[in-house]
């Protein structure tokens, strides 16, 4: 059990991005717009965020370079910039699916194709590192070894407040704020009504298009943050991919039944599966199976399929998600 | 020629769609040009010209690039027609590829024509199985097929990586073993037409697949039922269509087509492509999506859109001698897809233009007469 803190910490690195992105997907889909573009949005947000971090870090010298406190500031800038980039990028999807009544799957696919192509093209054209597509950054100083005071709490302190990134707290903050917005505010109620029955919402005087724009743009903001968080906490260089996490976040969203609380549980579950896949040698029982590494890597995906098979039958998807809102259709 | 094409497109609805798609392609290309001008003003125009004309230098290579794209495009398009989004083409392709290679390397007692035929069939069957699993999950457990096929992609990816590393590894070249001569797809005289002999039976099989899918979709009750399920699952069920069977069959056929793409790419000699253990999903799988979208999911449209994408991809390859990254091609393709999603915008413009023209025409007639 010595490895338990390590496993929990690893799990958080994988779970938090999934949580944030799936919450983003929730805002979009509950407003009635299917957002299959999460993968592309994550990638775009991560790309812009990582470039900003790269530039800030390349100007730093001496103490500032290794200062953990200053690194936190850089990380927060990165989060804000990536969120902003994701939001701007998502406007393309919002415009196509809300104003132009485009097929939301097609428009989302276009964004998914566009983001990696643009990231590689820009990275190569401006050659951050000798004509390769990678953008590197220093991750070491981002890690908070121990949160003051909280890290000293027995057991919990070691599990949740040591070896952690500030993005974990940002992610949890986003979860709390999202739940409040969705269930306790007028905007949240309107958002949900637009996803269930847009015509009834319109009859009640709600501007369906505006609400849907807001939902999609929030999803872009959170998607960008999630992508940046994933890259910054699990790698040291950005290679124009978020390795299918956007689609995993979609699975988390469906498995979480479009509800914040359940999305948290789903994200933690996926994070645990991912941790088992990547750090299986630390879990005694699983290690003893002595399988080729590829089998462990399949685990999260097989587990997802099995779980979806059990939870999808009574799906509580927003009724109008994916449907084009056409005023004349009433 | 143009008049013939326009004559073929008899209904105005179809004509407007095709013209607006054409506008989307032009807009996408121009968008690519703008990005190229921003990045490299000096090289942008010659490079752009190379994209547009480079494909003519080697038509055989264009067809070779297009062959797997026809299969995956048909795969995605067929599923689209039946209301399903099969994003699992890469996984189905890879599982088909590994099956074909396994037969090609290990089952060597088969004589020449039977050997490659069996390899191709096994690729198709493996792909069909890989497609059918999400189909069954969708039909009986209501699992979202987008998520399910993506999960199947990754399972396939890691399985293929395992199979190459532990079963079919060519240590010297760090890739999968080359299939036996008897399992390589024959040229059937195509090597005489296209001199760098790259076009083989795979291309002919792709044409056959187009014809069969066209017949299934347009001329059979089965195809009609599939499309009906895609259009409205509940009302077609009410009308007596077995909707569950329809979903499973649609995914099965879709997977089969992607599996064949795997055979078409990897049943080649030692100079051809080989599977590696890099754990990257094969690009042709995902590129089936833009091929299907640009081709309106219509088998004949898919043929032309696969050729088009093969054409500009080869152009992009030749363009590399300028100081520009070849990913500009992917940017162009993505923006074409985006602009084609804005079809309604282009349709509006065209209809307005047509009306305007007719109005001008009338006015002129009035003035003349």
Condensed summary:
With 330 residues, chain A is mainly alpha-helical.
Give a structural overview.
The complex is a heterodimer of chains A (330) and B (369). By secondary structure, chain A is mostly helical. Chain A has a single domain (4-329), classed as ABC transporter involved in vitamin B12 uptake, BtuC (Orthogonal Bundle). Chain A contains 14 helices and 4 strands. In chain A, the strands form 2 sheets. A two-stranded antiparallel sheet of chain A has the order 1-4. Chain A has a two-stranded antiparallel sheet with strand order 2-3. In chain A, helix 2 (38-59) packs across helix 10 (208-234), helix 4 runs antiparallel to helix 10 and helix 8 (186-196) packs across helix 10 (208-234). Chain A is globular and about 60 Å long. Chain B is an all-alpha fold. Chain B has 2 domains: 10-43 and 323-369, no CATH class; 60-309, ABC transporter involved in vitamin B12 uptake, BtuC. Helix content of chain B is 75%, strand content 1%. Chain B is built from 16 helices and 2 strands. A two-stranded antiparallel sheet of chain B has the order 1-2. In chain B, a hairpin with a 4-residue loop joins strand 1 (169-170) and strand 2 (175-176). Chain B is globular. The relative contact order of chain B is 0.19. The model of chain B has no long low-confidence stretch (mean pLDDT 88). At the A-B interface, helix 5, helix 11 and helix 14 of A face helix 7, helix 13, helix 15 and helix 16 of B.
């Amino acid at each position: 059990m010595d490895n338990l803190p390590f496993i929990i910490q690893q799990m958080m690195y994988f779970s938090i991005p999934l949580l944030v992105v799936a919450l983003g997907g929730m805002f979009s889909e509950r407003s009635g717009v299917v957002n299959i573009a999460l993968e592309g949005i994550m990638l775009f947000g991560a790309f812009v965020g990582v470039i900003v971090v790269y530039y800030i870090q390349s100007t730093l010298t001496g103490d500032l370079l290794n200062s953990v406190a200053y690194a936190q500031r850089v990380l927060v800038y990165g989060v804000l910039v990536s969120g902003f980039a994701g939001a701007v990028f998502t406007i393309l999807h919002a415009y196509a699916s809300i104003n132009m009544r485009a097929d939301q799957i097609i428009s989302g696919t276009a964004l998914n194709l566009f983001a990696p192509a643009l990231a590689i093209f820009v990275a190569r054209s401006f050659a951050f590192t000798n004509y390769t597509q990678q953008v590197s950054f220093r991750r070491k100083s981002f890690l908070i070894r121990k949160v003051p005071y909280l890290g000293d709490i027995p057991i919990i302190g070691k599990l949740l407040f040591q070896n952690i990134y500030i993005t974990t707290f940002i992610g949890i903050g986003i979860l709390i704020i999202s739940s409040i917005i969705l269930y306790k505010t007028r905007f949240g109620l309107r958002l949900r009504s637009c996803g269930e029955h847009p015509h009834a919402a319109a009859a009640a005087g709600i501007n369906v298009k505006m609400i849907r724009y807001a939902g999609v743009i929030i999803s872009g903001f959170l998607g960008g943050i999630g992508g940046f968080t994933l890259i910054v906490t699990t790698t040291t260089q950005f290679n124009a991919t978020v390795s299918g996490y956007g689609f995993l976040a979609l699975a988390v969203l469906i498995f979480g039944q479009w509800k914040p609380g359940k999305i948290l549980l789903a994200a933690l579950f996926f994070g645990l599966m991912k941790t088992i896949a990547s750090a299986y040698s630390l879990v005694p029982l699983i290690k003893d199976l002595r399988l080729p590494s590829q089998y462990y890597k399949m685990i999260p995906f097989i587990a997802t399929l099995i779980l979806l098979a059990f939870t999808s039958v009574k799906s509580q998807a927003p009724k109008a998600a994916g449907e084009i809102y056409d005023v004349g259709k009433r | 020629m143009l008049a013939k094409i326009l004559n073929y497109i008899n209904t105005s609805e179809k004509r407007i769609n095709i013209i607006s798609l054409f506008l989307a392609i032009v807009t996408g290309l121009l968008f690519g040009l703008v990005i190229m001008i921003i990045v490299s003003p000096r090289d942008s125009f010659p490079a752009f010209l190379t994209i547009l004309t480079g494909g003519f230098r080697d038509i055989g290579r264009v067809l070779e690039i297009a062959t797997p794209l026809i299969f995956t495009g048909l795969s995605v398009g067929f599923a689209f027609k039946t209301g399903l989004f099969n994003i699992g083409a890469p996984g189905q392709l890879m599982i088909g590829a590994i099956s074909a290679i396994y037969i090609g390397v290990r089952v060597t007692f088969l004589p020449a024509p039977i050997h490659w035929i069996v390899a191709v069939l096994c690729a198709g069957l493996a792909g069909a199985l890989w497609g059918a699993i999400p189909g069954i999950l969708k039909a009986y457990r209501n699992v979202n097929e987008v998520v399910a096929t993506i999960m199947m992609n990754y399972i396939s990816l890691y399985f293929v990586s395992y199979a190459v590393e532990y079963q079919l590894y060519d240590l010297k070249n760090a890739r999968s073993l080359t299939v036996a001569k008897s399992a390589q797809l024959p040229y059937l005289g195509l090597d005489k037409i296209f001199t760098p002999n790259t076009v083989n039976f795979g291309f002919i099989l792709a044409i056959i697949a187009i014809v069969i899918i066209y017949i299934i979709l347009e001329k059979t009750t089965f195809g009609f039922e599939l499309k009906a399920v895609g259009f409205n699952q509940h009302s077609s069920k009410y009308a007596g269509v077995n909707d569950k069977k329809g979903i499973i069959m649609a995914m099965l056929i879709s997977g089969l087509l992607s599996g064949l793409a795997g055979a078409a790419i990897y049943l080649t000699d030692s100079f051809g492509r080989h599977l590696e253990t890099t754990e990257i999903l094969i690009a042709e799988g995902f590129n089936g999506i833009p091929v299907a979208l640009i081709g309106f999911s219509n088998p004949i449209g898919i043929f032309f859109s696969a050729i088009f994408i093969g054409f500009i991809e080869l152009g992009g390859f030749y363009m590399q001698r300028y100081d520009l990254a070849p990913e500009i091609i992917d940017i162009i393709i993505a923006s074409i897809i985006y602009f084609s999603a804005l079809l309604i915008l282009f349709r509006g413009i065209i209809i307005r233009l047509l009306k305007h023209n007719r109005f001008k025409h009338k006015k002129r007639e009035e003035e003349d007469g």
